[in-house]
Design goal:
Length: 491
């Protein structure tokens, strides 16, 4: 055996703009680098996507520039896309963000729409030589074709692309590492089917692997989510044979770690910029708009109306949990709308049978659905909430058995026909199978990007009749002979 040298890979994934955690990462990374330098060792720092999330005010108000500044200040070497970057930032925004970044942006399966071209700042792979060892890096992002295409991207099948890339790159490098924003099940599948990859650094499913696991000849590592951990893999390499002989890995818990004052100052500076950018006035509210997760309320009705109007459908459904708080009377700004509706969720138009609509509305009357916590799919709230409707009136008996409460649903002047198909305005979250599952069965006609729900609210609030319309009851409890409009205020 020849001379053995140790190298280090530090990796993060799925931070989703938990910027305070990024300050802890900076401090820990700096300490580790100082320790390695004293030992004559070297390492690379890598992010595996979903670093940016518009739920964070500083990210929303700077179009992600705060995230780029943190990546550069922390000294990241490599970055790849998560679905969050590709779905919530326009192509122009990403061009501006990454055009002259100090770190390398790579993706092996993301291309400009309808072509095999990539922007000049994006590379299909990267070779980095460290102390005479050639590290090759590939990257792949989970495909969502219908929505990526509307954002100007073609995201190709990862397995097909990676097979070709491994074949092409393997002979040029000593170690081959994949940055995978594909999720743990896909990482294990790739490791089992694709020879030639030494290590996969994973993301997307927010999985934490305290120690790397091995699938056939490939090691798999991942560092959880939300800047809760920093991943660290140590690689021992025989420099003469250029062969990997030992792998050790761990994830450092960041809770209680010291935060970098430098990064905290940077966040403060970008927060001030974001607040200025989001101070744009939308409208003046003469009275509050109340929301309620467990019953009908005007603000959720306004959101349903905004979907129906934007998509130009006859009816609309949206869960009240999308609205985190009520809004008070007075001047309403973009910051106010971001505070109450921070989700990166888009409108959708689907074709669906009346039976599925009725089943969904029945479910929305049950506490076990209203109180269901949702994780992922763009949702940044607490619970699913009840269902707000537009273009419909629902007559029901609150004392009846579950799934037998609804007496009649009127769509305009006609009663809903369970066998008839309707074009329904709703949200992409439901088409992905989150929350009210029956809506996943609808045929997708179109996703509307890059508009988020708060963008629709901003348009709706400027309409002269919108505030009056949203206060008209849509749910009628026939047993009690009154509308359930105006419930508990969420503040």
């Amino acid at each position: 055996m020849g001379l053995i040298k140790r190298f280090h890979l530090l990796h993060t994934n799925d931070l989703h703009s938990r910027l305070d955690g990024a300050a802890q990462i900076h401090h820990l990374v700096t300490s580790l680098r100082e320790k390695w330098a004293a030992q004559g060792e070297e390492g690379l720092l890598i992010d595996v996507g979903d670093h940016m999330d518009r739920m964070r005010m500083e990210t929303e108000g700077t179009d992600g520039w705060v995230n780029r500044a943190i990546l550069e200040k922390t000294g990241y070497d490599l970055f790849t896309f998560g679905n969050n970057e590709l779905l919530t930032f326009s192509k122009d925004h990403l061009d501006a963000l990454f055009r002259d970044a100090s770190f390398s942006v790579i993706s092996s399966n993301v291309f400009e729409y309808g072509s095999d071209r990539q922007p000049g700042w994006l590379s299909p792979y990267k070779i980095k030589e460290v102390a005479g060892v050639k590290f090759g890096f590939l990257a792949a992002t989970i495909p969502y074709p219908l929505v990526y295409e509307q954002m100007g991207w073609t995201v190709k099948d990862p397995l097909t692309v990676l097979k070709e890339a491994v074949h092409s790159l393997r002979g040029q490098v000593d170690l081959l590492i994949l940055l995978s924003h594909l999720g743990l099940p896909n990482d294990r599948l790739l490791a089992g089917q694709l020879e030639g990859i030494d290590m996969i650094l994973g993301a997307h499913t927010h999985h934490l692997l305290p120690e790397p696991e091995r699938e056939k000849g490939t090691w798999i590592a991942a560092a959880g989510k939300f800047a809760e951990y920093l991943g660290h893999v140590s690689l021992e390499i025989d420099l003469e044979q250029k062969r990997l002989i030992r792998v050790e890995g761990r994830c450092y818990e960041l809770k209680g770690q010291e935060a970098s004052a430098e990064i905290l100052r940077l966040i403060d500076r970008y927060r001030e910029e974001a607040e200025r950018n989001l101070s744009e006035p939308i409208t003046y509210l003469p009275e509050p708009l109340i929301t309620d997760w467990y019953g009908e309320a005007p603000f959720a009705n306004l959101l349903a109306d905004s979907l129906r109007d934007w998509v130009q459908a006859d009816i609309a459904l949206v869960n009240s949990g999308q609205l985190l708080k009520s809004v008070r009377s007075g001047l309403i700004t973009r910051k106010d709308l971001h505070r109450v509706c921070p989700h990166p969720i888009n409108p959708a138009l689907i074709r669906i049978k009346g039976k599925a609509i009725k089943e969904t509305l029945e479910e929305s009357l049950l506490p076990e659905f209203q109180e269901q916590p949702i994780r992922g799919f763009g949702f940044r709230g607490k619970v699913l909430g009840s269902m707000a409707v537009s273009g419909m009136k629902v007559e029901y008996d609150s004392r009846a058995k579950p799934h037998e409460k609804i007496l009649r649903i009127m769509v305009g002047p006609r009663e809903l026909n369970e066998e008839e198909e309707y074009e329904l305005a709703t949200i992409d979250m439901f088409t992905f199978g989150a929350g009210y599952l029956g809506l996943k069965e609808g045929e997708i006609i179109r996703f509307y990007l890059p508009e988020f729900l708060r963008d629709l609210l901003a348009v709706q609030l400027k309409k002269t009749d919108a505030l009056q319309r949203c206060r008209e009851p849509r749910w009628i409890d026939e047993t009690r002979k009154h509308s359930c409009l105006f419930g508990t205020t969420q503040v």
